[in-house]
Amino acid sequence: MWNKAYLQHPSVRPIWAYLADVLIGNNIVKSAGQVEQAARTNIFLQSWTVNLAGNSKLPKNLLRMLRTARKYNVRIDAAKLSSRAKAAMPIWYHVGGTDRLKSLNNSKCGRCLRTNHKVRSVGDLLKVVRRENNYALDPPHVKNNHCPCRHCTSNFADGCRSPHSCTQCAKSLLDRLHDTWKTSVKAPQDGLTLTPRRLDANERALTITSPDNIELTFNPSITVSDAYIDGTRVF
Predict the structure, then answer these.
(1) What's the pTM value of the predicted model, to 2 decimals?
(2) What is the rounded CA–CA span in Å between residue 216 and residue 233?
(3) Residue 232: CB partners within 8 Å, gap ≥ 6?
(4) How far is it between the farthest Cα atoms of the chain?
(5) Res 228: pLDDT
(6) Rounded Cα distance, 97 and 132, in Å
(7) Residue 39 DSSP label
(8) Minimum mean pLDDT among 10-24, 157-171, 198-212: which range?
(9) Residue 182: which residues within 8 A CB-CB, separation 6 or more?
């Protein structure tokens, strides 16, 4: 039950889970490299790990929680993810990242994206790269580090000295995700998700005051809309 509560969506996550994040993040194994505090989000959503041996400095209850999770192979492993779930995932030490992505975690542009652009998630990166195709910008984005567009001007004011270079770095980070985790790659149609009309009918049925009169159509969809808990697999 501790693991289930720890993996709840941020909107309903218990306060102790955020304290656990800090304690867990302070016990990352040296083999994971230098995982900066701003890059740490959730041990189950990222590729770094912690010391679970007898000499671990973690509190006993957290140690027991993580050992149980390791024993039963608790992990994020969804057959089909919605774009929203993909965008909510942390980009740093992404569990779906290639080896080439790891090299950008602590690169100069990676640190700038974290520090000056406040990038934490895949969705944050999408906002950074969107300026290149935003033709409504006035002045428009120019592909150099002296770009006068409002996004690059704002980035420069926040401390970034190479806003266009960081935009290219953001694109590289997104490209270095495995296809399953890319928001640009749509999962194949499986014919399982209900049509919008039937989904609306279910929503309307739930407003009926008498539960004895509710008729719902079962939704067999395997699409995960929330990677935190719905996409968690055990065994």
Answers:
(1) 0.87
(2) 27
(3) 7, 44, 74, 75, 76, 77
(4) 65
(5) 63
(6) 23
(7) G
(8) 198-212
(9) 86, 174
End-to-end CA distance of the chain: 16
Average pLDDT over residues 152-178: 96
77 touches 83 (CB < 8 A):
no
Phi and psi for 213 in degrees, rounded to 5? Answer: -100, 0
Mean pLDDT of the chain: 90
Residue 82 identity (one-letter amino acid): S
Q: Which residue has the tokens 């995932």?
A: 89
Tokens of 209: 């005051």
- What is residue 177's DSSP assignment? B
* Residues 39, 102 contacting (CB under 8 angstroms): no
The rounded distance, in Å, linking the Cα atoms of 115 and 94 is 18
Contacts of 106 (CB under 8 A, 6+ apart): 33, 34, 36
213 has pLDDT over 90: no
3-state secondary structure of 224: strand
Q: Examine the pLDDT at 209 and tell me if it is beyond 60.
A: no
User: In the chain, where does DSSP find H-type helix?
Assistant: 2-6, 15-25, 60-71, 83-88, 99-102, 108-115, 122-129, 150-157, 163-175, 196-205
* pLDDT over threshold 90, residue 134: no
Q: Which two tokens stand for residue 69?
A: 């999770």
For 27-80, how does the pLDDT look when each residue is reduced to its tens digit (9 = 90+)?
999 999 899 999 999 999 999 999 999 899 999 999 999 999 999 999 888 878
Quickly tell me which residue has 């499986």 as its tokens. 190
Q: What is the DSSP letter of 195?
A: P
What are the tokens at 53?
A: 């041996």
